[in-house]
Amino acid sequence: MLARISRRLAGLLATLLAASFVIFAAVYAAPGDPAVFLAGGRDKLTPEKLELVRAQYHLDEPLVVQYGRWLGDCLHFDLGRSFKYSDQVADLIVARFPTTLALVAYATVLFVVLGVGAGILAAVRRGTWIDSAVVGGTTLAASVPSFVSAIALAAVFGVQLGWFPVTGGGEGFTGTLHHLTLPALALALGALAIISRVTRQAMADAGAADHVEAARSSGIPEREIVRRHILRNALGPIVTMCGLVMAGMLAGTVVVETAFGISGIGSLLVGAINTHDFPVAQAVLLLMVTGYIVVTTLVDLVHPLLDPRVKEAAV
Amino acid sequence: MTAPTLAPTSAPALVKIPAARRSYGAILAGAVLGLVVLAALLAPLIAPYAPDAIDLSASLAGTTGDHLLGTDSSGQDLLSRVLYGARTSLVAPALLLAIAAVLGIALGTLAAWRGGWADTVVSRLTDVMYAFPGLLFTVLIIAVFGAGMTTSVLALGLAYTPTVAKYTRSVAIGERRKPYIDAYRVQGMGGLRICAFHLVPNLGRSVIGYLVVLFGEALMSLATLSYLGFGAQPPSSDWGLMVQEGQAAVVQGALLPALVPGIAIALVVVSFNVVGVRAADRLANGR
Amino acid sequence: MPYEAAGSDTVLLDIDHLTLRLPGTARPVLDQVSLRVASGEVVGLVGESGSGKSTTAKAALRTLPEGTALDGSVRVAGRDVLALRGEELRAHRARTVALVHQDPRAALNPVRRIGDFLVERLAAAGTGVTGAAARDRAVELLGAVGLDEPGRRVRQRPHELSGGMLQRVVIAGALAAEPRLLLADEATSALDVTTQAEILALLRTLRAERGLGLLFITHDLHLAAAYCDRVYVMYAGRVVEERTAGDLFERPRHPYTRGLLACSPTLGEDHREIRPIPGKPPSLADAFAGCPFAERCPDAEPECATWRPEPVALADGGTGSASCRRLPELVPVPQIPQKGADR
């Protein structure tokens, strides 16, 4: 078990290093002088500013050294300076990250509860109209891009019915909840489709096992069979998939935050790219990739705890 | 978010519709796609207006006899724009998948044929790209090279390459164990020749089936990029861009400018997903 | 044909002319099957795979696939099983009859502990034993089926136990409900020989101690003849012969039974030829106008292909019956048929 964890952690570090190097070295793929690129293009570029960029990124040193220094700075949360906001990048991110986290957390609660619920319903009522409705609904939900569902939700529940605000992040707990409901729904919709299908399939697989038939033929009540045998045994794939989808959601905020005008790190990334503010884009990308890799690794480590058979094999 | 758009790695396996429900839906989906292809081909003939014809006097008109699906804030006819937009929406995903197919099949075949270091290198590259969730790899490329349809198509093509490579590798490993490959080798044929003229053509069916499944997703990814302002630029009639342009009008109560292209995207993607799974099954089963 | 075993006052399982059809099959899965098990009796049910023996057991539990068409009756302890629905059916499965499967590893949920399995059965049977008392009862049950360290076993999971130990656990689970009838469906077939013997001895002890009726389903005619009081032989969904075990082994009457006995070697018969039955067991896609065994039968006459099989009483006054139209003519000793030795 311990060997497995350390192996997995080593893999995590290697992937993180490789991904961060790609994010860093991308500067050199940009056409023209990297210093000019990092400073945000030629307009309003002063020699002093250029000098500042060169010094901050150690552009006169070899690439590997530059990367090492940059990574070291990142580890100290010194993410450089945004030349657009003329602010520390770290401050920008710290100010906006809570909103994004709240959005992801809210969406996660929604997709786990609704997705697993719909999946269980479809699995238990397999072959009925309820099952068909869930399968049809999720096929549709999986085919609607989040920006379209965001706008449709805003149009119906925000503009037409006036139930929810269509822009902004809100103040306080209830205010935040109120403001983030539609964005969280838009973010959760596609995830919900995936999770309900995974749940339905995992339960169908678990339900086909001989021991379920054996339990049924020995008169165990159906409710117990679903809960203790089918759902319990299907938990592995369901939890894994929930974790993976949640990890990917950090990237999904890019679209939803833009659609609802929420100032989180997703909209920060979009703004940074549109304004050629590369240091900010770099930092946000690094944060999102790190979050994604860490969460997927955690999911991988948790999985064996749910299934004694895998646990045994993993030792 | 739609996790399928943002996670090309996991979605195709999940887009499975139970067999019993397929045939009826597949006919409907096929019909929708047929209509969309027709619309794209015949746009100049059937569109009532030019897609970029501005008529500020008819700004945000609802459905009228003049404008069947209404107009946007600059008075451009939405029906005409959606018809023209079908062109980019079909051609651009096809292009990016073509790029991903060429690179992915080459890398996947190389990894499967050579094994050893080639396999290791390809799978390490794949791992690094998979470390970027959803569209983030593409976004990084766009951050570096700037926004635009060409950059978006190239970047997405690159982003889809590992997915295609991984799939090709798994099919190719099975294929290369078959006796006919050995037969060519015994005849003294070179590895490159066997791969190019015999192995890859035999993989064709299942890889093409897989690409069809990816199409809906590729379309969603591109539309998302355009919506964010990274892809198609005005005055294009790209659907994703149209949604972005129409969004402001939603607050004013005019829903059509954003919803018409949005529904068009959803309709085409769902049709592709329904048809794609079926096509993939058929192609893989050699029917 | 209904046969009363000596001293069997209570008939536990009474299947009467049961015909069972599944959609999409050419012939009934069960065709006019009649079978009885009395309390304290061990009854063997023998046949090749697909002969319908497992389906017969399923009928007793009414665990049949959807779309099954039934005719005839199945009574367990006097209750009409086929009429049971919902809660009544669940209670019937939980209390009156218990099934022991072929593969104990498949019968247990791999992610749950042995103790949970037993406690769940106790609860389903409505014993009213809960909590710590249920735990104690689980340990007790494991002890009763001869598992060592039962206190430790309840905390273990199936993958930590051997196949023989697991079959004891499954039997303990079956006993949790204190059923009156035990159905053992190939319960020992997947075990190695010594474990098999232990499980057989355990089942016999339990039957004696608790007065259980035991339906012992197996493909092994020799084992059934040695272990059971009475044996039914099934072929293509029909009972072809029903005899006391000793009679069956010494004087098999139906050509199929004789064929089965002739195709396996027995100790001490070094000069007897081993003769497999020609042809292959019928599938559900094969329909028969007459005797289903006719085309593989060494004694068949053209008329057999149209004769609807029915039980024929044994002419020599022996107990039991066999469904063969040539029964009166066939000699009641194991003989070597001339035909069919072509392989």
Quickly describe the structure.
The complex is a heterotrimer of chains A (315), B (287) and C (343). Chain A has 315 residues and is mainly alpha-helical.
Write a structural description.
The complex is a heterotrimer of chains A (315), B (287) and C (343). Chain A has helices at residues 2-29, 34-38, 47-57, 63-75, 89-124, 129-143, 146-160, 172-207, 210-217, 222-260, 265-274, 278-306, 308-314; strands spanning 81-82, 87-88. Chain A is globular and about 80 Å long. Chain A has a two-stranded antiparallel sheet. The termini of chain A are close together. Chain A is built from 13 helices and 2 strands. Chain B is mainly α and 287 residues long. Chain B is built from 11 helices and no strands. Chain B has helices at 3-6, 11-14, 19-46, 78-114, 116-130, 136-145, 149-176, 179-186, 191-227, 239-251, 256-284. In chain B, helix 3 (19-46) packs across helix 11 and helix 4 runs antiparallel to helix 5 (116-130). The radius of gyration of chain B is 21 Å and the shape is elongated. Chain C is an alpha/beta fold and 343 residues long. Chain C has helices spanning 53-61, 86-95, 104-107, 114-124, 131-144, 150-153, 163-176, 193-210, 221-227, 245-250, 255-262, and strands at 11-21, 30-38, 42-46, 69-76, 79-80, 97-100, 181-185, 213-218, 230-235, 238-244, 312-313, 321-322. In chain C, the strands form 2 sheets. In chain C, strands 6-7-8-3-9-10-12-11 form an 8-stranded mixed beta sheet, sandwiched between helices. In chain C, strands 2-1-4-5 form a 4-stranded antiparallel beta sheet, covered by helices on one side. Chains in contact: A-B, A-C.
Indicate the radius of gyration of chain A in whole angstroms. Answer: 24 Å
The biggest beta sheet of chain B, please? none
Distance between the termini of chain B: 36 Å
Task: Note the run of SSEs of chain A as H and E.
Answer: HHHHEEHHHHHHHHH
What share of the residues of chain B lie within helices?
over 70%
Shape of chain B: elongated
Tally of separate helices of chain A: 13
Listing every helix as H and every strand as E from the N terminus to the C terminus, the arrangement of chain B reads: HHHHHHHHHHH
What portion of residues of chain B belong to β-strands? under 5%
User: How are the strands ordered across the major sheet of chain A?
Assistant: 1-2
Strand content of chain A: under 5%
Measured by residues with Cβ under 8 Å of the partner chain's Cβ, the largest interface is: A-B, 69 and 58 residues
What percentage of residues of chain A falls in helices of 4 or more residues?
Answer: over 70%
Whole-Å distance between the termini of chain A?
5 Å
Global geometry of chain A = globular
- What does the largest sheet of chain A look like? 2 strands, antiparallel
